[in-house]
Description:
By secondary structure, the chain is α/β, with parallel strands linked by helices. The protein folds into two domains: about 5-30 and about 375-805, no CATH class; about 45-370, 3-Layer(aba) Sandwich (Alkaline Phosphatase, subunit A). The protein has 30 helices and twelve strands. The relative contact order is 0.11. The model is unreliable at about 1-5, about 30-40, about 225-245, about 700-710, about 725-730 and about 795-805 (pLDDT under 50).
Amino acid sequence: MRPGRPGAATALLRAVALLVAVVVGILLLAPPASAAPGESGPAEGPVVVVGMTGVRWDDVSAAGTPALYSLLTDGATANLISRSVRSWACPADGWLAASAGRRAADLPMETWGTCRVLYSPGSDGVVPGWSDYVRAAQEGSYDAVPGLLGESLAARGVRTLGIGPGAAIALASYSGVPVGEWQVRAAAPESLAQRVAAGLAGHDLVVVDAGTVRDRNRPLVWVEPGALQDGTDEEPAGPDLPDSEDWILSAPTRAEQVASVEGRVAAIIDAVRATSPDAVVLVVSLADSGTVPRMQLAGMLGGEGPVPGVLGSSSTRQYAMVQATDVAPTIMALVTGETLPAMPGTPMTTTGPAPDSHLFRLVDAAEHSLAVRPLVPGFFTVLVVVNLLLYAAAALGMNRTILRAMQASAPRRAALGRALLRPDGTTRLLRGLRIGGTVVAALPVASYLANLVPWWRSGSPGLVLWALVVAIALALGALALLGPWRRHLLSPIVVVAGFTSLVLVADVLTGATLQVSALMGVQPLVGGRFYGFNNSSFALHASASILVAMCAAEPLARRGHRWPAAALVAVIGVTATVLDGHPSIGADFGGPPALIPAFAILVLLTLEVRITWRRLGLVLGVSALLAISFSVLDWLRPPEQRTHLGNFIQTVLDGGLWNVIARKAGQNLTNLFGSTLTLLAIAGVIVLVVVVARPLGRAARAEADDDAGSGGRWGARFRAGYDWLRPRSTMARLEQDAVMLRPGVIALATAWTIGFALNDSGVVVPAIGMSLAVPLLLAVVATWLLRVRVANGPGIGARESLRRS
Length: 805
C-alpha cells in the first residue's frame, strides 16, 4: 500500500470532520419518532386499572365475553407483551412489572412447580413473598425496584384503592405494604362491583385484580401458607383454580376460567359507567397462562382518541402492540400527567382508528409470533450448515494437496479427487461455488421477504415458510447470475448485497414491520427490540452497505479517480450510519461505533492512505463521540418520546451502567460459547484468510514465499495446495480488475470486530455478516477464476499446480 501524502491525509481528516458535522446536524434537525403516539394530559376523572393474567384475544367473542369484547367496540385495544425476566411470565411477574415499571420477577419456582399463588397481605400488612420479590430484583440485572409505582403515587398525594392480591403487589411501597387503601376481592361479581363503585367516590386510582387463567397442565402452587379471610362474601386470595393432585382432571376448562374473569370485568365496567362515566378504564392481562409465552390482551376505555381505536406505545412503535412495562408509565401519565425516567416503558395512548379487521389482526399477530418461535433455531442451524458446506467446498475443493491425497485414498474419495483435479472438474467446482455462494448469500434477505406472505395461516406453516425462503433465494440468485449484468465481475455482490440493503432500509423507514416475527428479525415474545435494526439486521445492514460502497467505488478507483471514489464511499457511509443510529429510524446504539471506523478505513484505503495507529485512534475516538451523540440527542427528548438510546443515557445517570455492562457481557459470552453461530464465524474467518485475503495480500506484495516457513511442515503443505492461486496464474490481475476488493474485506473485518465487542449479541454480528459477505466474496473469486480459465485455457490451474508439486 502506498503511503499517502501528508496533505492528502490532512485533507481527509478535514473531510471526516465535515461529515461528522453533517451527521450531527441531521440528528439535531430530526423530528421525534414518527411512530410515537401523541402526548396526552392526565385523565379528567378517576382511573381504574383492571389486571388479570392469562387472557388473550382469541379468548374473546361478542357472545361469550361481551364485556371484554366491548373494549374492541368502545375503546382502544392492543396485544400486550408480558415478557419478564424469563421467557414466560408468572402472575407475580406481571404485577411486579407494574410495581417496578421494569422487568421484574419472582424467584424461580422450579422447585415447587411453575408459578406461585398470590396471597393477600397478612396481619402485618406486607405482601406475602415480598422479600423474595425484592431479592430476585436485587439479584437480577434490570435495575428493577419493586414498590416504585406505589411510592411515586404516594409521594404525589394520589388517593389509591387496591382490590385483590395482584393489586397489592402493584400498589406496594418499598417495604411491601400497599399504599393507600387495600381490600380483599369479593367472591361475587355483584359485591365486587359495589366495592369498586364505593371506591370511585374517594379515590383517584382504583386497581383491581380480576383473576387468573391457567393452562390445565400448569397449575399455580402454594409456596407458603396463607390464611383464608373471614366472612361469607370473601374468597381466598389465591386464584380461582383448585390446587390438587387431580388438577388435570378436576380443573375448570379454559373457557370456564375466562368466563369467571369476564364476570368480574363486566361488573367493574358496569359499576364505573354507572358512577363515574368520565373515568378511564385500563384492562390488561399481565402474564402468561403457562410456560409457553403468548401475546396477552390490553384495552382502554375512556381515553383520548378515536373510538374504536388502536392502542399503542412508543416502546414498541408497532401496530397495536404494548408491553407490561408500559403499564406503570401509563398509570402515572393518566393519574399525575407525569412520567418517571426510572421507568423505561412509555404511556399507552390511542394511535389511530381501528379498522374493521382489527380483532383479526390482533389474533393474527399473536399467531404469527407463536408460529415463528419454534422455527427460528432450525433456520439458524440450517444457515450455519449450508455456509459451512460452502466454505468446505471452497477451502478443500481448491486445495490441490488435499485433492491429491484424496486421489490416493479409498476408491470413492479417489474418484472425487481425480474428478476435481481434472480441468473440467475444476470448472464445475468454480461454477458450483459461484451459484452456491450467490444463493446462500440470498438466504438472509429471503427470510425477511417471506413475511410478505401469511405463511403462518397455512396448515403446515414451517413447510410453507421454508419453501418461500428457498424460492426467494433461488429467484434472487438467478437475477444476479442471469440478468444483463451477469458478465460483470461483481454482479453477485451488486445484486444480492444491494437488494439486501434496499429491503432492510425500506423496512426501517416504514416502521420495521417486515422484521416483526421474521426468522432473523424482531421476535415480539422476546420483548427486546420492536423497531429499527436488531443485531441480526444490523449485521446484514453493515455488511451490505460496505459491499455496496465497495462496488460503487470500483469503477472510479480502477480508473484512478481516487478522490471521487472516496467521496462516494463517504456518502454511502454517512447515509448508512444515520439510518442505523438515528433514534427515529434504526435506533441502534451499537451500530455507529462499528460503521464509522469501517467506512473511515474504507475511505483511507480508497485514497491509498497509509493507516497509522494515530489515524486509527482518531477514527475510533470520533466514532465513539458520534455514537454517544446519537444517544444524548435522543435523551434530550421528553421521556415519553425516547427510544432505548435515550433510556440508556438515563440508566447511566441513574447509576445502572455496570448492571447493563454485566448483563450484556454475560449474554455476549453465552452466545460465544453456546451458539452454533460461533462455528460459522470461525469458519468464515478461515475461508476469508485462506481463499481471499491471503492470495490477495500476496498478489499485492508480489512476494509469494515470504510466509512459506510459518505454521510448520503441515501448514506449509496445506498452504501449498493453494499455490495455483499465486500471482503468476490468477490473483495478481484480480487486484487490478477489482481494486476495491481488498479494502472492502478489511472494512468488513473492522465492522465485524467492533460489532462483536460492543453488541450484547456478540458473535451474532460477525457470523450473520459473514453469512452474507463470505459467500458473495467466494462467488466473485470463483467468477474471476472461471474467466482466467476461459482466457488462458482450462488447464492452467492444474498445469501450474502440477509444475510446482
